[in-house]
Specification:
About 5% of the residues lie in helices and about 45% in strands. The protein has about 350 residues and is mainly beta. The chain folds into three domains: about 40-130, Immunoglobulin-like; about 130-230; about 245-340, Immunoglobulin-like. The strands form six sheets. Strands 10, 11, 14, 15, 19, 21, 22, 24, 25 and 26 form a ten-stranded mixed beta sheet that branches. It has a four-stranded antiparallel beta sheet with strand order 3-2-5-7, with no helix packed on it. A hairpin with a 4-residue loop joins strand 24 and strand 25. The protein is elongated and about 110 Å long.
């Protein structure tokens, strides 16, 4: 049998005669192929912003920023979460990004993602709600006394706070004096979630004491279990009442009826105020006075009251306070009396 052999030179010639179309490169239509005309060097990111604690509710309307990391040239993008805390951004140029979640009343949080062409990067970020101050008061207290014969000046602070994550997340509270760099811890009220109080003596306050806080901005700081701090609105100590009201009668262990009339001298003050009267029974066995009756919001034109409680035989003392509209107050010295048996 005869076999015909075609020389290699002839094959090359045939290829040239066949024209250029016979050996074209294959069409590049894959959008992920960098050499394709449809290639886009872009991807997408999606995610959810949640809370710290189960059932991890979605944080709605949180601003989410996609911040490029590395060389400049890519734009910063932003969006907001929907009602379920989800967000998405498309047409994002490839590369690494910081995903920044931020909302007023929350501690900002950040994650990192890398966008690759034609893919969706996913992330979940937990956003800690900062504790909130719901009530705050600061008041000055001035107490005159017989022994020791020195007045007492104090700062009284009461705070109520909560946390949107859960009320029990509130951990501690303090009163800050920012321009002095001072923070005074408050005590938790037993059995009351988010309730704090303190009574600071003049010597416990930054120099020069209570008077030195007048005109300064004060801030309540509330810390959650994670150690993050929420601030109450700025507040001020309005005044320190220097004048002490004066009792008139009974005093000096004067013997009186079981329902005595208590009389004091009118106070002359340049601001609105009311009186408060406290009556105490002195129980020697206990070593502490026992409050028997308290009368508050007594008008400034009134200078006497009848004790409403029928007092048992024993030794008593009473005091009168002046109280301004902000709760700042000043107290008289103790006036003693006796109800005979």
């Amino acid at each position: 049998m005869l076999v015909s052999r075609v020389p290699a030179v002839a094959l090359v010639a045939l290829a040239l005669l066949a024209g250029p179309g016979c050996f074209d490169d294959p069409a590049r239509e894959n959008p992920l192929d960098p050499l394709s005309e449809g290639f886009r060097d872009e991807g997408a990111v999606s995610g959810q912003i949640t809370g710290l604690y189960p059932p991890f509710p979605g944080r709605a309307d949180v601003r989410v920023r996609l911040v490029p990391v590395g060389p400049a040239g890519r734009p910063e993008l932003a969006t907001r979460t929907d009602a379920s805390g989800q967000f998405a951004l498309s047409d994002v140029p490839s590369g690494p990004y910081a995903v920044v979640a931020e909302q007023e009343g929350f501690l900002g949080a950040t994650d990192t993602v890398t966008i690759a062409p034609g893919t969706v990067a996913e992330t979940t970020i937990q956003l800690d709600a900062l504790p909130e101050v719901t009530e705050q008061t600061v008041r000055s207290v001035h107490i005159s006394r017989w022994f020791p014969d020195e007045p007492v000046f104090q700062l009284e602070v009461d705070v109520a706070a909560t946390d949107p994550d859960r009320p029990e997340d509130v951990d501690s509270a303090a009163l800050a004096v920012p321009d002095l760099g001072v923070s005074l811890p408050l005590g938790a009220v037993g059995g009351e979630t988010g309730q704090f109080t303190a009574l600071f003596d003049d010597t416990e306050l930054p120099a020069p004491g209570l008077e030195g806080l007048l005109g300064r901005t004060l801030r309540v700081e509330v810390k959650d279990a994670a150690g993050n701090v929420g601030l109450g609105p700025p507040l001020n100590l309005v005044r320190v009442i220097e004048l002490s009201p004066q009792t008139e009668r009974p005093q000096g262990l004067e013997v009186v009826s079981p329902t005595p009339t208590l009389v004091w001298r009118p106070a002359q003050l340049p601001f609105a105020f009311t009186y408060r009267v406290d009556v105490f029974l002195v129980v020697e066995e206990l070593g502490l006075p026992t409050l028997i009756e308290r009368r508050e919001a007594i008008g400034p034109s009134i200078t006497s009251i009848d004790v409403a409680t029928e007092l048992v035989p024993g030794d008593y003392f009473w005091t009168v306070w002046v109280v301004d509209a902000f709760g700042n107050r000043s107290r008289s010295r103790e006036a003693g009396f006796r109800v005979a048996g």
